[in-house]
Amino acid sequence: MIDIRPVVHAISKLCVAMGVLMLAPAAIDWANADPNWRAFAMAGGATIVLGLLVAVATPGDGTPLVVEQAFLLTTGLWVVLPLLGAMPFMLGAPAAGWTDAMFESMSGMTTTGTTAFPRLDHLPLGTHLWRGILQWSGGLGIVVVAMVFLPVMRVGGMQFFRSEGFDTMGKVMPRAGQIAAEMTQLYLGITLACAATYTALGMGGFDAVMHALTTCSTGGFGRYDASFAVFPGSIELAASFFTILASIPFVRMLQLVHGDPAPLWRDSQIRAYLGIIAATCLVILVYEALWRSVLPSADLAREVVFHVVTITSGTGFASTDVTQWGYLPFVLLFFIGLIGGCTGSTVCSIKVFRYQVLFEALRGQLTQMQSPHRVRPLRLQGRRLDPEVVNSVMAFFTMFVLSFGALIVALALTGLHPRTALTAAWTAIANIGPIWGPEVTANGSVADFPPSAKWLMIAGMYLGRLELITVFVVLMPRFWRQ
Fold it and tell me: Which amino acids does the record list as binding K(+) (predicted)?
């Protein structure tokens, strides 16, 4: 039987940390004489007390977690923390119901960016800050999980990065503290640089901090119903730069900081990611000029780059209605959203690495068919691809397609328009953010969706953020019999 006490103890300590973070929005609202501070103070106090009581009741002995416990810790975190993170939304403004509060919290922690609130312009500052903190902490959490847990758990081919993720010799926690500390410092540095850049380009101080939190987490929550359309165009370029920075492997940036830039330039995943962005932007601009007779301009180029980057990374910011660009650009944006960015970053979706493994496996199979007696090992980034990695990636693709299809059907059965169901499933399971359809409100929220559709999207966001297989393994009876 699996000993869950170390798992519960670790989660309880993170609950205490979340409760402490709730005091920041409380302080902001208190300083602005907004009574909403009481909601955060009560929620923060309750979360801290609960976390401390559970931590005391489940003392840890310092034993490293085994793989089964790592699965439970990963899946449990993204259930417990969103549950607690929803409390301020229910207790204060906008006084959301249970469904909407949970949707907003899960969308934040999974860095999806879809909102359940129909109006954002007049929400208290503390509520906006909390939405940003949820996304920032969720982005940091997924980076640590990707580098520490998933390689050991062999989920979705992540074992390929085991040596780069500080190989833990079958255990999970020996160097997790060191890894988390280095990642946090880098993540914080990028966020501070982003906030400073936004401020220098004309964004207000609070807006700069809030949007830096959601930019560097590739989350996409905004303060305004019009999203980035309220800011000067130069801010879009800054957002694009920092979004790309957050979309490349953090381990590469750490190596750069430590004086070794070569791995960053040699990483085929980064080159492919940047190539996808450049090619997509070029195709859209050519299409607009030749097929829709739209004169090329710096404003159009900036908007295209901004939206291609924000959708590829799963950030979801917007400054214009991309459906007005025509069918081809919309289809391209849809498909690049299913590609995502680089493994080991804050981004979501399938990720470039898995497509590289897929194409390498297909090329190997074609070569084998042409020359049956030829032995050609599969290689990626100069390293041999083990059959276990290839099989794991194929399993992930299969699970992703099946889950995506099932979610589309389920959402359509709730009464949503087919286009809404398609894009809602797309944005949920790939953690992207925007939705298009007749039921979507003017600010892009799901406020008018039926509760059943919102809960299906909550499940989709949870599955997509945790790489699907992580969750399905825990749901198998055999897992609990070991």
Answer: 111-112, 219, 315, 431
Question: pLDDT at position 46, please?
Answer: 97
Mean pLDDT, residues 423-445 taken together = 95
Question: 219 labelled as ligand-binding?
Answer: yes
Tokens of 152: 């050991």
Three-state DSSP state, 380: strand
Instruction: Round to whole Å and give the CA distance between 170 and 323.
Output: 48
Instruction: Determine the distance from the C-alpha atom of residue 427 to the mean position of all C-alpha atoms in its chain, rounded to a whole number.
Output: 11
Of 116, 467, 107, 120, give the one whose Cα is nearest residue 315: 107
Start-to-end CA distance of the chain, whole Å, equals 6
Give the model's pLDDT for residue 365: 87
The per-residue pLDDT for 449 is 97
Residue-by-residue DSSP string for 88-128: HHHHSTT---HHHHHHHHHHHHTT------S--TTS-HHHH
184 is in an annotated binding site: no
Cβ atoms 6, 69 nearer than 8 A: yes
Tokens (6 digits) for 286: 């050519």
Residue 451 predicted with pLDDT over 60: yes
391 annotated binding-site participant: no
Annotated ligand binding at 431? The verdict is yes
Instruction: Tell me the mean pLDDT in the region 234-255.
Output: 94
Q: Where are the domains of the chain?
A: 177-349
